[in-house]
Design goal:
Length: 476
């Protein structure tokens, strides 16, 4: 394969390049909810006169692929965990782009409503039936349909191909994309990495009796073998939760969940806990210990209330505290070695599923030497998850790079727990796109100010007056 062509989309007609993107697009790896939410917000903002970058998604498969059967994360019939009203525009507060009484703010909100979950159902003629059915959670397949609809309507430009490399070239990002027949370069003013990354896993999967997440969902689609009567699931987060539910309820198998904590904790979903997901006001002012505790209680290694209430219907699920340190064949079964403190135990099962989730640092494998050096310099040392998580600024990017690298999946600790998931896609889009508009940009120093609880307000001329409150305080 050769480096045969270069794609650099032309600047958006009719806008002046006074911006920080100079007409170049914002590149997003993955055409999932984050790319679609950004495309919707970008199209709405451009329609009302803001010079924000166009969104170009690089996607190896198809729009919303990870929400469909056969792609490794779901069978498509699983139900969405969050409310569908937490859609692409949520929480619909547009005051990043103008004062609340400013007509432009109202116009943005109105245009955004045209891309809501409800608008999608109305457009498909399904709204009344959904209400009459008491507003059920959509399946992942139905959610994917919504995302595809919004991507089309917003004109999201998707380049099909796998991103193989990402390098800094001057003040831009240059991605090497492989579409199966050709390799070509795509350039952009900024880069946003979406998706959970490939399932990292703690066990080597053999595709037969020890499966990773993708192997499990492949088996689920193809049909479970009768011999897999007892199953060990490793991990206790949402990825594991959906797998346990499918096994115990959908397939009527006996499941033992192995997780390092005392039991299978429920996600904290009170209105007080949920508020930080929709609106991270005050988040940056909390101590790091409190923020980490919050994430542990409400997001990491917990099953959603919905999964828990489904599992209450069956006696098929038990759990063992500990960490799985290895597996070996044992008379047609698998012996799973579990360590808990000083103790080591063996647990036999017909099948083992490693559901410990994705690797959030997967993108570092794409970085070229210049990007890697720049990231190390920006972080002040080796590229570690901890350093990145602590550094993320209000635009959900690592500060100090020549071109922005937005990492919303690593933004929970510094900026708010809703940014890695679907909890506030509208706010995520505002934070990212504001970076490219000088008058609403919150610079890196603002992070420190936000941490100390102060507010930074930048004002501008037409259209309307715009401000970004870096603590998030003006966004309600
Ligand atoms: C099964 C499951 C259910 C979830 N349910 C919820 C929920 O109900 N509520 C919630 O808030 N969160 C949920 N999450 C967590 C999170 O919100 C999702 O992971 C969500 O999909 C993230 O959206 P995204 O846009 O970041 O990426 P994704 O929707 O994961 O999209 C990433 C895309 O990137 C593509 N891709 C990956 N690597 C490359 C590459 N190198 N080149 C090109 N393309 C690439 C993939 O094909 C994929 O289409 C769930 C996660 C999973 C796995």
């Amino acid at each position: 394969m050769s480096q045969s062509s270069t794609l650099f989309p032309a600047s958006v007609a009719g806008t002046r390049s006074t911006s920080r993107h100079g007409g170049a697009p914002l590149l997003v790896i993955g055409a999932g909810p984050k790319a679609v939410a950004l495309a919707v917000k970008s199209s709405v903002l451009r329609a009302v006169g803001f010079d924000v970058p166009e969104i170009v998604a690089l996607e190896r498969d198809r729009t919303a692929a990870n929400w469909l059967a056969g792609r490794g994360w779901t069978n498509g019939r699983q139900r969405l965990g969050t409310l569908p009203e937490k859609d692409l525009g949520f929480p619909y507060d547009c005051t990043t782009w103008g004062e609340s009484h400013d007509p432009v703010t109202g116009e943005i909100a109105q245009r955004m409503a045209g891309f809501s979950w409800a608008s999608h159902l109305q457009d498909r003629g399904l709204y009344a039936r959904w209400i009459d059915r008491s507003r059920p959670q959509p399946s992942h397949r139905e959610w994917a349909d919504y995302l595809e609809w919004a991507a089309d309507r917003s004109g999201l430009r998707t380049v099909i191909g796998e991103v193989r490399a990402a390098e800094l070239r001057g003040g831009d990002w240059a991605l090497t994309v492989d579409d199966g027949t050709d390799r070509f370069a795509v350039h952009g003013a900024g880069l946003l990495v979406s998706g959970p990354g490939p399932a990292a896993g703690v066990l080597p999967a053999d595709g037969a009796r020890v499966l990773d997440t993708a192997g499990f969902w492949k088996m689920a689609v193809e049909g479970f073998p009768d011999w897999a009567e007892t199953v060990v699931v490793v991990g206790a987060g949402e990825t594991a939760g959906t797998i346990v539910r499918e096994l115990a309820l959908g397939q009527d198998r006996k499941v033992t969940v192995v997780a390092p904590r005392a039991t299978l904790y429920s996600r904290g979903e009170s209105p007080f806990e949920n508020r930080y997901y929709s609106d991270p006001t005050g988040w940056a002012g909390l101590s790091e210990t409190d923020r980490q505790e919050f994430i542990r209680r409400t997001d990491r290694a917990v099953f959603s209330q919905e999964v828990q209430s489904d599992l209450a219907l069956t006696t098929n699920v038990s759990w063992e505290p500990g960490r799985v340190v290895g597996t070996r064949p044992a008379d047609g079964q698998v012996a799973v070695e579990i360590a808990y403190g000083e103790q080591h135990r063996l647990h036999r099962a017909d099948l083992v599923v490693d559901a410990t989730g994705g690797d959030p640092l997967w993108f570092t494998g794409l970085l070229g030497p210049l990007a890697e050096d720049a990231l190390r310099a920006a972080l002040g040392g080796a590229v570690t998850r901890e350093r990145i998580e602590r550094s993320i600024d209000s635009s959900l990017a690592v500060p100090g790079l020549p071109a922005p690298l937005h990492l919303p999946n690593l933004a929970a600790l510094a900026q708010g727990p809703g940014f890695p998931n679907l909890s506030s896609l509208g706010l995520l889009s505002d934070r990212v796109l504001a970076r490219y508009v000088p008058d609403v940009h919150a610079d890196d120093t603002a992070v420190a100010e936000a941490r100390s609880g102060s507010r930074t307000t930048a004002r501008a001329g037409a259209p309307g007056s715009h401000h970004l409150d870096t603590s998030g305080a003006a966004q309600r």
